[in-house]
C-alpha cells in the first residue's frame, strides 16, 4: 500500500507541515527525557515519507531513517532535501535493521502504528530484537500504535470521515475496516479531492494485525528491554498510545 500511497500520503493530514511540527513537539521531549540526551542519535525505523524524522531533525536531533517502502523512502529524500536536512535514508524491513548503518543509536522510533503491519507474534519479536541490536547501552525504544485492545473488542467498521479545505476546494479522508477475525482486518483508505477538473478519488488498502499490548510488552522484554510503560494520549498529548522501554546495558549492542 505504501508504495502506491507515497505520493499522496501528506493528504491524510489537514496540514502536513503543521503535523510534522506538532508531532515533533511531543515526541522530542519524550525521547530526550527517556534517553537523557539532547540532541539524541535517533533511528526512525518506520519513517514513511518523513513525518517524524523531519520534525525531529528540525529540532536538532541526529536522525537516521528507514522504511520498507522504497517509494516512501524516495519521497522522504525529496522532502528532506527541500528542507535542507541531512537525514540518511535507507530501505529496510523493521524485522531486520542490520543493513542500516550508524548504530549504536540513543533511540529507536517506531511510529504511526507500524507494529500493526507485522502479521504474527514472531514478527513482532523479530522487530523488537532488531531494534535492540541498533541501540547503545541504556538506549530507548519509543513506539506508537492504535489502542488495539479496545478496538479488538469494538471492531469498528470505519474511521472518519475528516473534511478539509484546500484553498476553497474540499478534501475528504476516511477509512473502511473489514474485519476478518478477532485481531485481523483490511483497512481501505479513501482520499477524495475537489479539483479544477472535478472530483478525484484514490483508494489504498492493506492488511493489519490488531496487535495486543501484552504481545508488544512481552516481545520488548524478551529482547532485553526493561521498564516497559504505556502512555495514553491524555498523558503524552500524542494522538496514539505510546510505549517506552529501555534496553538493559548487558544486552546492548556494545
Overall 3D form: globular
What fraction, in percent, of the residue positions are helical? 25-40%
User: How many strand elements?
Assistant: 11
CATH architecture of the largest domain: 3-Layer(aba) Sandwich
What order do the SSEs take from the amino end to the carboxyl end, as H and E? Answer: HHEHEHEEHEHEEEEHEHE
Low-confidence stretches: 250-254
Q: Give the DSSP E fraction (strand runs of 2 or more residues).
A: 25-35%
For the largest sheet, list the strands in their spatial order.
3-2-1-4-5-11-10
Distance between the termini: 36 Å
The residue-averaged pLDDT reads 96
CATH third-tier fold name of the largest domain: Rossmann fold
Number of discrete domains: 2
| Assigned CATH superfamily of the largest domain | Vaccinia Virus protein VP39
How many helices? The count is: 8
Specify the structural class: alpha/beta
Write down the oligomeric state: single chain
CATH C-level class of the largest domain is Alpha Beta
Whole-angstrom Rg: 18 Å
Largest sheet: 7 strands, mixed
Amino acid at each position: 500500500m505504501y508504495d502506491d500511497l507515497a505520493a499522496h500520503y501528506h493528504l491524510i493530514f489537514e496540514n502536513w507541515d503543521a503535523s510534522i511540527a506538532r508531532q515533533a513537539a511531543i515526541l522530542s521531549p519524550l525521547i530526550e527525557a527517556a534517553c537523557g540526551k539532547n540532541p539524541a542519535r535517533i533511528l526512525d525505523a518506520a519513517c514513511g515519507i518523513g513525518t517524524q524524522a523531519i520534525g525531529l531533525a528540525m529540532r536538532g536531533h541526529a536522525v537516521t531513517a528507514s522504511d520498507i517502502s522504497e517509494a516512501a523512502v524516495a519521497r522522504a529524500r525529496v522532502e528532506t532535501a527541500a528542507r535542507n536536512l541531512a537525514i540518511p535514508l535507507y530501505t529496510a524491513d523493521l524485522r531486520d535493521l542490520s543493513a542500516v548503518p550508524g548504530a549504536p543509536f540513543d533511540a529507536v522510533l517506531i511510529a504511526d502504528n507500524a507494529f500493526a503491519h507485522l502479521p504474527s507474534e514472531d514478527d513482532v519479536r523479530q522487530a523488537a530484537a532488531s531494534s535492540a541490536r541498533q541501540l547503545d547501552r541504556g538506549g530507548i525504544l519509543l513506539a506508537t500504535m492504535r489502542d488495539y485492545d479496545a478496538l479488538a473488542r469494538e471492531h469498528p467498521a470505519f474511521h472518519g470521515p475528516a473534511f478539509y479545505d484546500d484553498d476553497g476546494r474540499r478534501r475528504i479522508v476516511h477509512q473502511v475496516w473489514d474485519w476478518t477475525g478477532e485481531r485481523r482486518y483490511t483497512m481501505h483508505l479513501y482520499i477524495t479531492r475537489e479539483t479544477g477538473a472535478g472530483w478525484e478519488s484514490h483508494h489504498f488498502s492493506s492488511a493489519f494485525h490488531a496487535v495486543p499490548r501484552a504481545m508488544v510488552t512481552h516481545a520488548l522484554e524478551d529482547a532485553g528491554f526493561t521498564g516497559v510503560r504505556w502512555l495514553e494520549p491524555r498523558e503524552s498529548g500524542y494522538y496514539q498510545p505510546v510505549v517506552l522501554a529501555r534496553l538493559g546495558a548487558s544486552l546492548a549492542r556494545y
